[in-house]
Design goal:
heterodimer; A: 366 residues; alpha+beta; Creatine Kinase, Chain A, domain 2; 2 domains; two-stranded antiparallel sheet; 10 strands; B: 181 residues; mainly alpha; 3 domains; two-stranded antiparallel ribbon; 8 helices; 2 strands; elongated; copper ion binding (chain B); UVR_dom (chain B)
């Protein structure tokens, strides 16, 4: 299987826009961190160790394609250009850490891009499942199935007291990080997010803006995940995240209703202005694009904007990132060139989306 | 002066915070100042990194009484040569054996990181899973045995004791087998 497929297509299955509560929860991610006995952790290992680990993990997974009913493609990070790596990072298929690693490492990606197993990231093995909408249990079951296949063939580093041993003490225990990516514009507009972040952090969970720690939430997208991995079972971690997510969804819905009730005109004006900006602007920074896309998405979810397809927005969120833009342009671009090209692509995509939709409805029966 | 956040670019922006009447000055590069500032003031009051946190906790325990001094942990992991100092500096382990080498120190670390928890609960790989289940079963039997003795049901206590012994034997042989592996 060739890598081009993963690079050229900005849509992954997790962006499909379906799944439960998909108007608020964009995606669910499960990550399991595992290490093998007998090798140092990637932070300390030699190239020779890296190579051996990579071979045995990759071989085990590729052999299990049939059992798992999955078709993994193995991608050697070393073989990729810098730009290709960035594109995979922007699609959340590999992490920046793996992309920049000088040692042998790889990513095994399933056909639908829902599963990617990173080899020699911070830990020897990182199993990652990315599902659309709110599907914590489903995503965990998928990750668990892969984990079981690996543990049968490979000897995991495990300690009776500390559980699965990981390079970073924040992952020790279950090695499980469960997270949901939520679009929370109404809670942000009504300035309730800081309060919610404080409450959640007391419950062993963390809330972050989508692009890393400490950053302001780009496009009102927040990631909620478990902080505790030790002393709490997988089931409890999942149940707690599920319950917190449901409560936040409820609060977001209430905030949306309140906005509609108290300031419908202002809201509608703001959302349509953003649609206008996306449709006509000539220069677009990442921040502005994210803000506008968030507004339009809210408009669609609330039934205020009708003729834009939500999958287009999910796709736009991905391809407006620097790496993807350059992949599309087929050349490197500096910041201001990117802003021009981003505006152009967004314009085209939104128009094309609208047209395709009317076409499909009126004349084509595909 | 370099940026306190990224520690790469030169610091160009000074952010002054007032907290409980005290003034704090922080120095950032333009990039970090832009990205940190909006959120920063409101909920992240100290840009402590994980390794700084770890070092700070250990400094605290150092001030505590003698016990700590007597149970001095090995300073280096036998398997990978990673020192406890390096663990504190980087906030990461060098290999799985580090957990064993620094075992005595770890509960302090984990307590802070994981809401007071120091031991794993949950899934275990195949062989370990059975062993753990066996251990738990023995523990339960022992508790039942204690209760039986307290209520003077000695016959039942004896049965429970035998049951526990049997399981312990099983555990011991099972343990040997995994060593051979």
């Amino acid at each position: 299987m060739s890598i081009e497929r993963f690079l050229d297509n900005s849509i992954s299955s997790w962006m499909a826009g379906d799944g439960e509560h998909s108007d608020i929860v964009m995606s669910t991610r499960i990550r399991l961190a595992r290490n093998l006995n007998g090798y140092r952790f990637p932070l300390a290992f030699t190239e020779d160790e890296a190579h051996k680990i990579d071979q045995s993990v990759s071989a085990t997974l590729l052999d299990a394609n049939e059992d798992l009913q999955m078709n993994f493609s193995s991608i050697q990070i070393k073989d990729l250009s810098e730009l290709s790596r960035q594109v995979l990072v922007e699609k959340h298929l590999i992490s920046p850490k793996l992309a920049n690693s000088p040692m042998t490492g790889s990513s095994l990606i399933s056909d639908d891009e829902a599963v990617s197993v990173m080899v020699n990231e911070e830990d020897h093995i990182r199993i990652q499942c990315l599902f659309p909408g709110l599907q914590i249990q489903e995503a965990y079951m998928q990750a668990d199935a892969i984990d079981r296949v690996l543990e049968k063939e490979l000897s995991y580093a495990f300690d009776e007291q500390f559980g699965y041993l990981t390079s970073c003490p924040t992952n020790t225990g279950t090695g499980l990080r469960a997270s949901v990516m939520m679009h929370l514009p109404a809670l942000t507009i009504t300035k309730q997010m800081n309060r919610i972040i404080t409450i959640i952090s007391r419950l062993g969970m963390v809330v972050r803006g989508i692009y890393g720690e400490g950053s302001e939430a780009l496009g009102n997208v927040y990631q909620v995940s478990n902080q505790t991995t030790l002393g709490k079972s997988e089931e409890d971690i999942i149940a707690d995240l599920q319950s917190i997510t449901e409560q936040i969804i409820q609060k977001e819905r209430e905030a949306r209703d309140a906005l509609l009730k108290h300031s419908a005109n202002t809201l509608e004006d703001r959302l349509y202005r953003s649609l206008g900006t996306l449709s006509y602007a000539r220069i677009m920074t990442t921040e502005e694009a994210a803000k506008c896309l968030s507004d339009v998405r809210l408009g669609i979810d609330m039934g205020l904007i009708e003729d834009v397809d939500v999958t287009i927005l999910n796709e736009c969120m991905v391809f407006m990132q620097p790496g993807f833009l350059q992949q599309y342009a087929g050349t490197t671009l500096n910041t201001s060139e990117r802003d021009l090209f981003r505006a152009k692509l967004l314009r085209e995509r939104l128009q094309k989306g609208e047209k395709m939709k009317t076409k499909g409805e009126n004349s084509y029966d595909v | 002066m370099i940026c306190e956040n990224c520690k790469q670019r030169p610091a160009k922006v000074t952010v002054t915070q007032v907290h409980n009447g005290e003034h704090f000055e922080r120095h950032y590069c333009e990039v970090c100042a832009n990205s940190l500032h909006p959120f920063y003031v409101e909920y992240k009051q100290d840009p402590l990194s994980l390794h700084q946190l770890l070092s700070n906790w250990f400094n605290h325990t150092d001030q505590q009484p003698m016990q700590q001094v007597q149970k001095k942990p090995p300073l280096e992991c036998e398997a990978c040569g990673w020192s406890i100092q390096r663990f504190l500096d980087e906030g990461k382990f060098g290999c799985a054996s580090c957990y064993n080498s620094f075992r005595g120190q770890l509960p302090t670390v984990f307590k802070r990181l994981h809401n007071g928890n120091v031991a794993h609960v949950g899934k275990a790989p195949g062989a370990f899973g059975e062993k753990l289940a066996l251990k738990k079963r023995i523990e339960t039997i022992r508790l039942q045995m204690k209760e039986a003795i307290e209520t003077e049901q000695f016959e039942q206590a004896a049965t429970l004791r035998d049951e526990a012994r049997e399981l312990e034997d099983k555990l011991a042989t099972g343990g040997e087998e995994t060593h051979v592996d």
